[in-house]
Design brief:
Strand content of chain A: 5-15%
Structural class of chain A: alpha/beta
Strand order of the largest sheet of chain A: 3-2-4-5
CATH topology of the largest domain in chain B: Rossmann fold
Number of domains of chain B: 2
Number of helices of chain A: 17
CATH architecture of the largest domain in chain A: Orthogonal Bundle
Number of helices of chain B: 19
Largest sheet of chain B: 6 strands, mixed
Largest interface: A-B, 23 and 33 residues
Distance between the termini of chain A: 13 Å
Number of strands of chain A: 8
Strand content of chain B: 15-25%
Number of strands of chain B: 22
Distance between the termini of chain B: 38 Å
Helix content of chain A: 55-70%
Oligomer: heterodimer
Structural class of chain B: alpha/beta
Amino acid sequence: MKNLDTGKLLSDYGNVLVLLLLCVVISVVTLEEQSPRSTAAAENLAARIVGDAGKNANILILVRGGEGQQKFANTLKNTLSKSGLNVTDTVVGTPADARAALEKQTEPLDVIATDEHMAAFCLEQLPNLAKKYPTLANTTAYQPKKHLWPNFLKKENLLNVLKQISVVAIIAIGMTMVIITAGIDLSVGSLIAFSGVVTALSIQQLSGGADPTTGHLLLGCAAGILVCALIGMGTGGLVTLFNIPAFIVTLGVMFITKGLAFIFSQSAPIPIANEGFAWLGRGSDLIGLPNSVVLMLLLYGIAHVIMTHTSIGRYIYAVGGNPEAARLSGVPVKWVLVFVYTLCGLLAGLGGVMEASLHITGDPKSGTLVELQVIAAVVVGGTSLAGGQGKIFGTLVGALIIGVIRNGMNLTGVEAHMQSVVYGVVILIAVMVDQLKNRARKTN
Amino acid sequence: MADAAQTPLLRMRGISKAFPGVQALSKVNLTLFAGEVLALLGENGAGKSTLIKILGGAHQQDEGSIEIDGNLVRLNNPLKAQSAGIGIIYQEFNLVPGLTARENIFLGQEPSRVCFIPRAQEEEKSRELFARIGVEINPNTLCRDLTVAQQQIVEIAKSLAQDARIIVMDEPTAALTPREVECLLTVVRELRSQGIGIIYISHRLDEIDAIADRVTVLRDGAHVTTRAKEDLERHEMIELMVGRSLDKEFPSHECQPGDVRLAVKNLSRGTKVRNVSFELRAGEIVGLTGLVGAGRTETARLIFGADKKDSGTVELDGKPIGATSPRDAIRCGICLLTEDRKSEGLVLGLAVQENFGLPSLHQFTHKGLINREQESDAFAKYVKQIKIKISNHEQSAATLSGGNQQKVVLAKWLQRNAEVIIFDEPTRGIDVGAKYEIYQLIHQLTDEGKAVLMISSELPEILGMSNRIIVMNEGRVTGEISDVTNATQADIMKLATLREEMAA
């Protein structure tokens, strides 16, 4: 009994293990000496200087200019001053600025507090300068303690991974449901472009050339999303009423919407003349999380509840597992199918809006081949193409696996074509594992 | 005719085979001589199909031996059986509809070298084979353009092309017109005269009368008898097939039929269901029986809205219901327990509890969310009441035995509290103990005033359970038996084999 549970656990959450393993591997590969620039690091450095140099020492703070550096320098200065040390000057700038500041020293300088960039400068230049300027004869340079930390595991990088997968992952929610019903939707990539173009055009039309208001922006987004939902509904209708394989219907819809996106936009990206439109794609309002990531997590939460706690979710599994048995149990099979295709279209429309928001443009070229990334995420997430099986969070994990692999390859400088090869291999392995799982289930 | 002293062409000795939960065959013997037709008789589920599948290499026996010409053979896959000279013509043909008759005949026998197929040669051979059988078919016709009878001939030719000396025909006439049946019987006689041994499975006793040399009867997976046909009267055949003591097999029960609940009027669909009319009263069990293919299941599916009817009406409590889908029918209070649980009754990949709740989700849904606890409690009640053996509610339905699967389906519909319940072969593949429980449950339902239509091929079950019996053949109702206590299986069989011409 216990063994059986472990087996079930492995088959249900095996891809989480794969994800963790990948994270470990990429962490090890991207391990590098890091010089922290946090407030804590500044305080730590100040404490060390106070300990070594004693009170009343003269201190110069040299920090290379850049994002967040001023804060680092200020923290250093405040902490050192509070401890009673004499901070002669604080320079946040280029090596030239640093040299000028050193040359200006009138009193003997005991300590230079630096970040890792200026530490390198001091190491190089201080001996020469000391010969020229007696004030620098007994000067020691201090920098924050370096430590080993993977580039991969830095907060900005992890947020970046999440942000990059958000569009694919959101559309993959709809795709998971479609694939659980044993269908497929190839049109989502084109719908991204179509939705972006429709949104941008609607905003243009609504605002009539003037700067669009927030109301205009929202209406434009609603238009883009709704049009895609309607297209999805049409797809579902064709699949159920005429019994045409979903592969063919969505292939047709893919070509049609791609073409229409280019026709409507006259083949040129349509700019959106309001920076506020970037809120969804670029903003990050909630505890530093990008808005797109918050939206993604929210939608996954909702989708999980739908799939596990509502009738429609149960029906989706039933239709995929055995449409005839489902029908004879009173499941409205056709409606279920129309629902999943509509939802998939709607989410693709939302993905298009997110993509447009990221670039503040409705671009007919966006979304190319995204349908394949979405399908890959679903498949890697353990959803069977045969239908009837799959988990929403599995898909999130699948999207994460693909995102993490891409990020890892970017960090280690794997070239783009090689990345494509690796994706292919990952997908094949995922499908093989799926088959092995099925075989194991059958023999049991 | 076979001479008892000669070495039999085929001898199966002491064949046993068990499937999970069912002993399909136990120590069955079968002997076939060259140049004879051996009829294999038995009710549905008696083990004929299993025996044939073992002979065809599709299943392996647990015990027993198979000899051909006195030599022991092991038929552990269909290819071995083929090369041993065994050709099996299953009810569902193994023909590729998009290929021609010739291509089908030689499919899998193309020269192993990579080379052009000797088309002319094959065509010549096909014509020879058809001539040998005595039927004219153009070898270059696509199989999908052939009639069912012609396709059967192609199957036979295919077996002959593989040098089959033993040909098994499983219900070959089920889908044939009377004329085509005559032709087929001529073909069988022709094959027999060429020294081929034929095992002929059919429910139609007049065919057996016409063609069989000897008859082997199976019942409940065991060998009952093998006798020369001359020594067997027709009623004897039926008795041997179905005969068993009925005491204690069915719970005793008194029924008080009430008002008419369900009235079916002139229901028709193609040739499968023709002008079927009957009534179902509150608190009664009506048995619907007939041979395989008589149109019983199809009738049930029409009432349930699972298939589209051509004409006719279904009334519930005097009001016509236009059920165009099972969903409609379920809403009106009709439910159908399908014959094939695996393909129609259950979604095998889902948990048993999820299968249970499927038609009644609205009962457990509050503010859009399913209350799984409530669903689980409801299911637990039935698990206890009808003794479903499961390890937990989340177990996948695929892992259950047939009997337990049937009970899950039953629980599913009981929860729905339907007024009219149609059982299609409710006890197929279920052991005797579980059968008894299901019978009791059906009685309980009628006590509550529900109307039950029970489709079954097992005549003892029909006789033991029904208050009234409706018999169908070839899509029509051929008779109704109201006085069940004095009816016999022979009475039913007579009605079930009543042909169109005779009925008219």
